[in-house]
Amino acid sequence: MRVGLFVPCYVDAFEPEVGIATLELLERLGCTVEYPFDQTCCGQPMTNTGCHAEAAATEALFVKNFSGFDYVVAPSGSCVHQVREHLTAIPQTDAVRHVRASTYELVEFLHDVLKVEALPWANFPHKVAYHTNCNALRGIHHARPTELVKPYYSKPLDLLRLVKGVELVDLARPDECCGFGGTFSVFEPAVSAKMGYDKVADQNRAGAEYVVSADSSCLMHQKGCAERLGLPLKYIHIAQVLNGAAA
Amino acid sequence: MSVEDLNPREREGVIHPEVRARSDESERSQDGGRLQHAEAASKPIRAPKVREPQPRGAKTRGDRPINQAEAAERFLAAPLHQAAHDERLWDLRKKRDASAHGIPEWEELRELASQIKTHTLSHLDRYLEQFEAAAKANGVHVHWAKDGADHNRIVLEILRSHGAKTLVKSKSMLTEECGFRHHMAANGIEVIETDLGERIQQLDNEEPSHVVAPAVHKTRMDVAEVFAKTLGTDPDNDDAHYLAESQRETTRPYILKADAGMTGCNFAIAETGSVVTCTNEGNADLSGNVPPLQIHSIGIEKIIPKVEHLGVFIRLLSRSALGSPITQYTSHFRAPRKGTEMHMVLVDNGRSERLGMEEFWTSLKCIRCGACMNTCPVYRRSGGLSYGATYSGPIGLIIDPTFNKRKYSTLPFSSTMNGSCTNVCPVKINIHEQIFAWRKVLVEEHQIPALKQGMMKAAGAVLSRPAAYRAAIGAADSALKVLPRFAVYNPLNTWGKKREMPEAPRQTFHAWYKQNRMKDTGR
Amino acid sequence: MSARDAILTGIRRNRPTGDFPLPEVPLFTPLVGDDLVAEFGERLKRMGGRVAEPGTDDVFAGVRERLDAATVIASAVPELTGNRDLRSVRYPQEVEDVDVALVRAVFGIAETGSVLFTEGQLIVNAVAYLAQHLVVLLDPADIVPNVQAAYRRPEFGRSAYAVLHTGPSATADIEGVLIHGAQGVRSLTVLMLPRSA
After folding, report:
1. Alpha helices (H) along chain C
2. Which 3 state secondary structure label does DSSP give B255?
């Protein structure tokens, strides 16, 4: 199985350990992983701002980089959501359609494709609040959102249950958006930050030591908010926890 | 429960409510416990030593784009108001969840509601004609209004032909759209809103901030101030019961003497020609049953084919809005009372135009329950008035630009597109996808600031060229001192004002990969 | 062109194309148990209403205190004679001083605790709102299980006015504090009393 690894720009720049953990974890689970060296971004910042024309060249580059793989895997729900649902600024050739259909977010790839049932190396003896990225939750269906009257399921929590020592804590508002919202965090900073403050306060009240998420962008925003408020919370990507990070 | 039973912290906080006398049976269920329906589980706010003035809404200047972010920031600067607003509406969202999860067929009901609405909208001409014929056969006068001005002119004519000078009305978002009250005031007609929240807003000369709870952004202290000024209540008494009772006592004389009554319309039934209103106060029934002349204003998208379809919508509406199984009053007005006149005004005001917008016509399915507002994390922290439009929150973001693309061009950007609105919508409008689609339309039509588009163009140029990208984030693949591109391009550094900057790692993943995994490849 | 024609022409021009069939609406399995009277009462209580059982000697025992305290009683039911004759009322404003109004419900809904009135039961529609308190007679045999079943009833297509009351007038518009008697009646009591043959 040839897997192309997509490391989103902000992971590349700020959380290289997340990229490394994703790579190592996939290899541990028997995948042949390649990292196309000329990759940059999925086009989401432009697309989400409505600037589709401005995203076209970036989208074309993404497809060029990731053609020819069985799967493309990225440790980010929002980037995968962009590729799957919104990579539409360029003509939809067979190559484009293939890349879009075969791009997976890490958690769903582990859960649905590799069907991982054991992670014997993983041990994370901490109180954990899980943060569900909104695109991962409602866009690529990681879990049953609280709004819907459907049977409960959660792919990320299924995986975290395979990790020894994890003690999950409950949030008062489990799947309320944390306010990152991509360019929203820049163009509407006051509301974005307030949402972040409320989110981290909820995590703190729940007694979490660590906040785990499948999306580094939310984590980066929340970490910035928690530090500003002086809360003792630590933030870590699920790839690192599943890969056996001791924290 | 009496005051003594409260824990000391609550007691000293002067906060109102649980402090009703035991004998007030209207607040008790039969077993003596407090009633929960429609009541907030959120604690009433504690009276501060210095009153926090109510933050006002967006500053509107003609067609200039609304600065929602600016108004939101002022709302956030009033922490008491913001926290009360957020908690109250989140509580409604939780009640909605509890209520929905009690109905096994909930998702099926949403699907049915959506299908009934899409069917009706795609045959709207036929159903409107059927409705008109049925209403006429019932002895109702039916009028058609192209827009808000047309609506106001028609109603004024009806009133003048009856020599009517005062009109009591129940809440209607449509009449807000039409600027009805202002128009009537300018023409010497006294209009009295009879919904408590709407009356508060009328007396404060403010638009409603929420489609179901018009004054939800106000504290009881704000209401006390408004009532003291306008109704002559005791300015030092901010007890909600006292305030509500004062409103009842001062409104009733208007209801009794009004020359005409008006209601909006939640559902209009094509097969019977009926108008259905859903209220909790019974004020639509007073407006429709007391004055000798009754007028119902109906948005043309409110039509549903048959009575039996109400079974679907009524089960969804109040559960979505407040979490209660039904509103206290569900009223079906079909024909005039003996010796009185009944008029129905069918209003377009942009709806037939919206019907032709391929990506946006399904927003006409909306039944105005407010669930999308209650769940919206941005709305709860900004207040409905920050949107500077008749419709606020998620549904407002996708409806308002159809009224004025320039003025409301900024609104679709006041969202994180988290999608919760879409999931709570009882008629399954894909709200967050329409927000996304609106952004594209507004960019294509040059309705977003040049600076913003310029930033995106520059970002796109860099992100599509690997060499340029690598150069931009660090010449030697070394640690970054900058934020991701979209943040860096913002000259204001709005990130760092509110949040700590992420620490720059020693090296990027890219550099790590090159160093650790590409030694042998010769690249 | 008249506004009517302009609107209809606009709709026809812009009507969404595609197949959007009108779905069948099932009756759905009632969410309530077999004891509709108990279910009705339970739900009415949650909506702020009260259920009173008829007494053995005095069918109005459950609301006797209310009736005794009232100065003006308007009865639209043969079971009790009030002191304000609704049939002789010319203008709705005349009933504004009514303390207690008595009305028989056409039917009740167990799912919600609602009762239905039409102009036939109310005689003067406004009395159900202008009165301070409302006492409703409901035949236990007249309770339908759910809202779907209620909307298969013929009253909605026949009556000039049909209204479902679920508890008394209520508002939570000020800080979410629940208040009864916002504009309409301050209390609603349902007396389970079979229709007299």
Report:
1. 3-14, 36-46, 64-69, 119-122, 127-130, 147-150, 155-158
2. helix
* Nearest residue, CB atoms, B332 vs list C15, C112, C163: C163
Which partners does chain C have (≥3 C-beta pairs < 8 Å)? B
Q: Which residues in chain B have Cβ-Cβ distances shorter than 8 Å to A38?
A: 466
**C104 — contact with chain B (CB < 8 Å)?**
no
The whole-angstrom distance between B170's CA and the closest CA on chain A is 31
Rounded distance between C-alpha atoms, residue B449 and residue B451, angstroms: 5
Torsion of the alpha carbons at B317, C175, B378 and B90, rounded to the nearest 10? -60
- For A60-123, give the DSSP string: HHHHHHHTT-SEEEES-HHHHHIIIII--SS---HHHHHHHHTEEEHHHIIIIIS-----TT-B
B413-437 in b/e burial notation, b at 16+ Cβ within 10 A? bbbbbbbbbbbbbbbbbbbbbbbbb
Q: Do chains B and A touch (3 or more CB pairs under 8 A)?
A: yes
C-alpha–C-alpha distance, residues A42 and A59, integer Å: 6
Instruction: Write out the DSSP string of B191-231.
Output: EEE-SHHHHHHHHTT---SSSS-TTTTS-HHHHHHHHHHHT
Which chains are within 8 Å of B by 3+ CB pairs?
A: A, C
Nearest residue to A2 (alpha-carbon basis) of A23, A39, A32 = A32
Question: Least CB-CB distance to C172: which of B39, B120, B248?
Answer: B39
With beta carbons less than 8 A apart as the criterion, state whether A242 and A122 touch: yes
Could you list the pLDDT tens digit for every one of the 523 residues in chain B?
Answer: 333 443 333 333 322 233 333 334 444 444 444 445 556 666 666 677 788 999 999 999 999 999 999 999 999 999 999 999 999 999 999 999 999 999 999 999 999 999 999 999 999 999 999 999 999 999 999 999 999 999 999 999 999 999 999 999 999 999 999 999 999 999 999 999 999 999 999 999 999 999 999 999 999 999 999 999 999 999 999 999 999 999 999 999 999 999 999 999 999 999 999 999 999 999 999 999 999 999 999 999 999 999 999 999 999 999 999 999 999 999 999 999 999 999 999 999 999 999 999 999 999 999 999 999 999 999 999 999 999 999 999 999 999 999 999 999 999 999 999 999 999 999 999 999 999 999 999 999 999 988 888 888 988 998 999 988 888 776 434 334 444 444 444 545 667 778 887 776 778 899 999 999 986 654 4
State the Cα–Cα distance between residues B438 and B444, nearest whole angstrom. Answer: 10
Query: What is the distance in angstroms between the Cα of A18 and the nearest Cα belonging to chain B?
Result: 9
For helices B68-76 and B79-101, angle between their N-to-C axes, nearest 10 degrees: 100
Inter-chain residue contact B498 with A190, CB threshold 8 Å: yes
**pTM, entire model:** 0.93
The reply to whether residue B509 touches residue A46, judged by beta carbons under 8 angstroms, is no
C103 touches B at CB < 8 Å:
no
Residues of B in contact with C162 (CB under 8 A): 331-332, 334
Chain A nearest-CA distance from B87, in A, is: 11
CA C19/CA C25 separation, integer angstroms: 18
- Are residues A236 and A19 in contact, defined by beta-carbon separation less than 8 angstroms? no
Q: Contact C116/C110 with Cβ under 8 angstroms?
A: no
CA-based nearest residue in chain C for residue B355: C14
Residues with Cβ within 8 Å of residue B498, at least 6 apart in sequence: A189, A190, A192, A193, A196, A224, A225, A228
Q: Which of C13, C93, C183 minimises the CB distance to B194?
A: C183
CA dihedral sign, ordered C94, C100, C104, C105: positive
Closest CA relative to residue A55, chosen from A40, A65, A66 = A40
Q: Which residues contact A217 (CB under 8 A, 6 or more apart)?
A: A8, A10, A76, A78, A133, A180, A182
